[in-house]
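For the sake of transparency, this paper describes our internal protein records without simplification. The record that follows is passed on verbatim for readers who wish to inspect the format:
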Amino acid sequence: MASKPQVRNAQDAGSAPEDREKHPVDETLPPVKMLTSGLQHVAAMYAGVVAPPLIVGAAVGLSGTELTFLTGASLFTAGLATFLQTLGVWKIGARLPFVNGVTFAGVAPMLAIVDTTDDKADALPVIFGAIIVAGLLGFLAAPWFSRLVRFFPPVVTGTVITLIGVSLLPVAFGWAQGPNPQAKDYGSTTFLSLAGITLVVVLLLRRFTRGFLKQIAVLVGLVIGTLIAIPFGVTDFSPVTEADIVGFPSPFHFGAPQFALAAIISMCVVMLVSMTESTADMLALGEIVERPADEKTIAAGLRADTLGSAISPLFNGFMCSAFAQNIGLVAMTRIRSRFVVACGGGFLVLMGLSPVAASLISVVPRPVLGGAGVVLFGSVAASGIQTLVKAGLEKDNNVLIVAVSLAVGIIPITAPEFYHAFPETAKIILDSGISTGCVAAVLLNVVFNHLGRRRDDDEVTAPMEPGEEISGSRTAKAAHVH
């Protein structure tokens, strides 16, 4: 008698009998487990999805109602992009448990576009036009992009991801000081205390809780921080009371897209960064779910990313990319079904169709958002540092690439007026540390690691110590390492 087929894991135990021969990625789970697991993915990514529209919307000067609309649009388009990635259509979609949402990489360049647009009413149409073009170009380039991945090794991607986090931290610090920089109470001890309390709550939850609660620590921190802020009179519930229960993100709500060359170039750079990050995430996720991502899978996944980005502006959404935190959630829970993630995409679409649900984040006071933002944006920078650790920084060439690229990328943060003499169109690109840092990292990597490369270029030398002179002793030290 043939022995009974063994159940591979806990996920298989709850699967339907006809699904047990399928790869775990293609299995469907019982309805309750499918819904709860999908909701967990939404909880893990929610704060990351709503942060970019909040940042950009505040920079444009949108009202609470308009900000709610923009947030809902981002949730809706993130759901659509997740559907494309998990369920797939034709050669579009990696068909892996891959969550898509608004990428942080585009925030700093979009803020630069806002700052250099004379009429703020035109800022969002210019941004949307640039994203549409970048998305379409990325879609066409997807099949060939895998051949360019060698120009985006960890030393480049790690530098760029670090710059993304560092560029966003000033936004969190601004939130922590209050909603209005011109107000007398801006930066008051009350606002800073609320930010600090929220930060401490998030840290405590991350340290002393487990499982689902640990994953949604940022979301819980926002709720607790908002409740604490009520007695101080800084919580405004009017966006919720004024929002409709059901609504639809009407196409081009903020105006027809406008196409400005400098903005398009800037967002194309962001698209390259996004595609590189998505490629790395697909490779990592493929290993986690035991279905390695080959060139065909990567091309299909990039098509979903780029097409989702091109479609998003139609519904007032921004550029979409993979959410790395959800990959960690897959690794932790061992629930590998792509249909679970598709279910999470369904929740995102429903939330985007309910202005009341989208308006809840608008209730959160800015100082509370600032406290949570320190963790959220700081984690992005830390993720970049983790990538740099794998980049081979014991090689002097890579140290120079990181050092100069970070310096170039941090210029707009530390010296905002550095490019004041340049034309306004050029400043859209130059004022984005992510764009300039990425270009610098790619070019330096080509110069140091590709052009005229000799065999001894691969030799590992010890990084120069502070105060150490370039001399024969350093050569001897390098030889000793070997």
Q: What stands out?
A: The radius of gyration is 23 Å. The CA atoms of residues 157 and 277 lie 7 Å apart. The chain has a mean pLDDT of 81.
